[in-house]
Design brief:
mainly alpha
């Protein structure tokens, strides 16, 4: 996407587009949409995604979506892999300000009438589309947004994002989404608001990567 927009890797894509002259923004946004439309055809679900969503529905846990993508890839994922699963509200690129601002997450918390803002949310950080009460993402934007909203964060660790394990906004590391089922059943414990009980997230990441499935 950055190559298409001719911007460096350090430049935020949406912030760049929003700073363009108004007459140039539609074309820039459409170039991003074209890339996302091509990518969604190759979409595959994360391991354990369907099982986790079935568990959440069985337990009556509400789910929403907060993503920086536009709506087509989101609905393609839902229709293809999670048909019949309920996600409400669904927040896409049109919502501003985007992550890492916590506004989208706080909007979901407010729509669910959570009096403690997002403290009752658990944010799960993996790839692409983002889900709440588990929030699915793969970038520091996701972690920062969750942390700033007051939510706990779980990193689905891989070789690319393992460096985020030691970030102050990461609470816990897992290697598969369905591992979260057992964690939620036992009762989630993370480092946010627990000054004396911070987990060794780097050790968790190294263990996960060392024992990952081939």
């Amino acid at each position: 996407m950055r190559a298409a927009l001719q911007i460096p890797r350090t430049t935020d894509i949406l912030n760049h587009i929003y700073t363009l002259p108004p007459s140039d923004q539609p074309a820039a946004m459409e170039s991003v949409r074209e890339i996302e439309r091509a990518a969604m055809i190759k979409q595959v679900p994360q391991k354990g995604l369907v099982g986790l969503m079935e568990y959440l529905e069985m337990r009556g846990v509400r789910k929403g979506i907060c993503t920086r993508n536009f709506d087509a890839p989101v609905y393609h994922l839902l229709e293809t892999f999670l048909k019949g699963k309920v996600f409400r509200p669904i927040i896409t690129r049109e919502f501003r300000p985007p992550k890492p601002d916590p506004a989208g997450i706080l909007h979901i918390a407010e729509s669910w009438s959570l009096s403690d803002r997002a403290d009752s949310l658990i944010m799960l950080l993996v790839e692409h589309t983002k889900f709440l009460t588990l929030k699915v993402g793969d970038a520091l934007d996701d972690m920062t947004a969750g942390h700033r909203a007051g939510a706990a964060t779980v990193l689905l660790v891989n070789e690319v994002n393992a460096h985020l394990a030691t970030h102050e906004h990461t609470d816990l590391c897992i290697r598969s989404l369905d591992e979260l089922v057992g964690i939620l059943e036992r009762g989630f414990t993370g480092q946010i608001d627990r000054e004396n009980e911070e987990p060794d997230t780097r050790a968790q990441a190294e263990e996960v990567l060392a024992n990952r499935s081939p």
